[in-house]
Amino acid sequence: MTEAMLGGGSDPILPTPPSSPPRARRSAAGSSSTWSLIDRLGLAFAWSLGLLFCAITAAIVIFLAVQGIRFLRPYMLWTNPKVSDTQAGSGGFLDPMLGTFIVSAIAILIAGPVGVGVAVWLSEYARPAGLARAVESTIEMLAGAPTVALALFGVLLFEAPVLGFLSTTSHGVVYGYSFFAAGAILSLVALPYVVSSVREGLQAIPNHVREASYAVGKTKIATIRRVLLPAARPSVITGNMLGIGHVIGDTAIILLLLGDTQTFQGVGHVPLLGILRGTGSTLTSYIFDNAPTGALNQPNKAYAAAFVLLLIVLGLNVIVDVFGRRSKELRWS
Amino acid sequence: MDEDALELPQQGLGQDQRAELGLGALVCLVVAVLVAMLAFIVKEAWPSFAHNGLSWFGPGGNADTQIQRIFTSGDLDQKAQFMIRAWPLIWSTILTTAGAVVISFVCSLFVAVFMVEFAPAPLKLVLEPVVRLLASVPSVIYGLLGVLVLVPFIGNHLITQGEKASVTPVISLSGYSLLAAVVILTVMISPIMIAIFAEGLRSVPRGWLEGSLALGVNRWRTFWRIAVVTARPAMIAGTVLATARALGESVMLSMISGSVAFAPNPADGLIFFYEPSRGLAPTILHNTEELTSPPMKHTLFAFAAVLLFSALALSLFGWAAKQPMKRYFNVGGAAA
After folding, report:
1. A256–B255 C-beta distance less than 8 A
2. B138, A251: Cβ pair inside 8 Å?
3. Phi/psi at A192 (nearest 5 deg)?
4. pLDDT, tens only, A160-194
């Protein structure tokens, strides 16, 4: 039966009815022998590109893992970068690693709540329609905006004297480099991911769930807080993790707004606040500086840091995977 | 969600309205931030455009020397210089972006089709996380791999001594090249395209495909004629997003595309691919320490403004291109 259904368009003789219904998806092998040459070439091309794609990924991961294991030493995880002539003496990357965590914490503390709010508004209110359009295109533009442009906007914004308390000030000149500045601008990078993920999650909840909640006397906002957001929690987590993933990977904003000092250079005497107002670096800027094109040029350190960064990104990916699957498992009947 | 038809309980309206107003204010704030960003960047960029007029975008002279002159003119007590002819930088951005987008569009389309329809189940299980992983590898890691692996390879093995000698007075061919930039950029933006394309292809109703199969069209043709055509809005969404990413890519390109403001010339034949260049975004990153000089600051903001408005125009174009298809079939609307 498959002959007539797949390839035998020119065959005028009708086949005998199939004894069993045809399967919707067959394996790719086996059925392509009746295709024309072009189609078979196309399929072969698709196969080779698919395999090439896997091979490139495997090559990147394996290469980084090999280099990482070659050059990563445990001491690097708890020592700070030091100025040194040799790669052996230049310390580890404790502060850049902590910087990565601080920056993503600040960014997601801003982008998380704001993103959930925007997503709730877009999914549940969206009135007036003009504003909803404007918000949608804003989010879309933020997703497409070059991060260097965002970073330059940050430079402009945090140099304003009003915001001087967030960064270093000397003699009335505001420098505008700080963890606050970098985190705030990076939250703009994370925002679109949070919004689109949470919105998708909310829209997947069928309307009768809302109606049931109204029917027992809950107000709309109570419905959102007690019913919809808890139900969409996997999407909220996925969105935040995706956002963090992009924040961790960003370099341009860090280079422009974090001052790019190898270790934390705190400001003032309040312990934590001082660090947040001061300058520092993250793993990405550490790699950038240690690449052959950077200021420090220590490829071994760059490989080690890149391996650590890749592991963090991999971990985030696993979390996204787990919660993504969980949100798909939620069934509304 | 259309909630107007629902009867809301009366007693809670006050609190409800407050919540709606609060969320509305938050949303307005987000829009205001974007508008403020556009306004401030244009305002800062204006002096550079005003002094150069339309020839800002044109060729003429060495952009690197012009940038250097702009920078030094801010230091001393001399008149601020704004003369810049940014064509080499713009040309480099166009070349790397267009090259990467065209290659990765073709590849991504095939990979997405393969992944959604033709891959055997185990491979399908591998491909999806692979795409997601590749999409989330930070650009600085791509840059590092490029600079430590691909650039030396191109410099030592692909470019011959004769080719190097032939252009020595003008530029040096060391592997920092258009080719390296396009290759790495392609690997960077393909996963974005593949993910969005695949999402669009998956949401094509199964019945449409089976209708075509039942008419005796083979699976390959069916998938290309029905699914790929139906998923066009997702293709546009993915391409727009990937192009925007390629346009704004600064870190990776500043590491591997070479750092001279040279406009690669297609008339040079094969050497064209080995020529170094530097786009707008890497130029901003390259000169961030010179933001202290006011004319330099205006010039860098002008670069950023060009990039930002290209990205905006791109998303506007994507929106406009999707409009005629929307009433036909809304595949990939969520991906946009």
Report:
1. no
2. yes
3. -60, -35
4. 777 777 777 667 677 778 888 889 999 999 999 99
Q: Which residues of B touch A50 (CB under 8 A)?
A: 110-111, 114-115, 119, 123, 127
Which one, of B241, B227, B240, lies nearest residue B331 by Cα? B227
Pick from A64, A138, A284: CB nearest B30: A138
Asked if B304 and A57 come within 8 Å (Cβ–Cβ), the reply is: no
- CB-closest option in A27, A34, A150 to B120: A27
B306 to chain A: closest CA residue: A149
d(CA A195, nearest CA chain B) in Å: 11
For residues B31 and B46, give the distance between their C-alpha atoms in angstroms, rounded to a whole number: 23
User: What tokens does A50 get?
Assistant: 């698919």
Are the beta carbons of A131 and B1 separated by less than 8 Å? no
Domains delineated in chain A: 94-329 (1.10.3720.10)
Residue of B nearest to A14 (CA): B216
A125 contacts B23? CB cut-off 8 A: yes
* HSE, side-chain direction, 13 A CA sphere, residue B316: 7
Q: How is residue A48 written in tokens?
A: 């080779």
Q: Is the dihedral of CA A192, A193, A196, A198 positive or negative?
A: negative
Compare CB distances from B247 to A146, A196, A217 and report the shortest one's residue. Answer: A146
Q: B107: which 2 tokens?
A: 């590849």
| H/E segment holding residue A174 | strand A173-174
What's chain B's length in residues? 336
ipTM value for the complex: 0.85
- For chain A, 333 residues long, give each residue's pLDDT as a single digit of tens: 444 444 444 445 555 555 555 555 554 444 667 778 888 888 888 889 999 988 998 998 899 899 888 888 887 777 777 777 677 777 778 888 888 998 999 999 999 999 999 999 998 888 888 888 889 888 988 888 888 899 889 888 888 777 777 777 667 677 778 888 889 999 999 999 999 999 988 988 888 888 999 999 888 888 888 888 888 888 898 889 889 988 998 888 888 888 777 777 777 777 777 777 778 888 888 888 888 877 777 888 888 888 999 999 888 888 888 887 777 776 665
Residue found under tokens 């970073």: A151
Taking residue B241's Cβ as centre, other Cβ atoms within 10 Å add up to: 23
Q: How far apart are CA A252 and CA B249, in angstroms?
A: 9
Q: Determine how many CB atoms are found less than 10 A away from the CB of residue A162.
A: 9
Chain centre distance of CA B157: 29
pLDDT of residue A114: 93
Cα dihedral sign, A206-A208-A212-A215: positive
A–B CB contacts, 8 A cutoff, strictly below: 293
Q: How far apart are CA B36 and CA A150, in angstroms?
A: 11
Of the candidates A322, A332, A325, A307, the one whose C-alpha atom is nearest the C-alpha of residue A61 is: A307
Selected for mutation to probe chain B from A5, A38, A133, A153 (highest B CB count within 10 Å) is A153
Best of B33, B37, B38, B330 to substitute, by most chain A Cβ atoms within 10 angstroms, is B37
Which residue of B lies nearest to A116 if distances are taken between CA atoms?
B23
Residue A37: C-alpha distances to residues B220, B221, B250, B278 (Å): 11, 12, 43, 43
Interface test with A, best of B220, B315, B319 (most A CBs within 10 A): B220
Beta-carbon separation of A214 and B9 below 8 A? yes
CA distance A48 to A30: 18
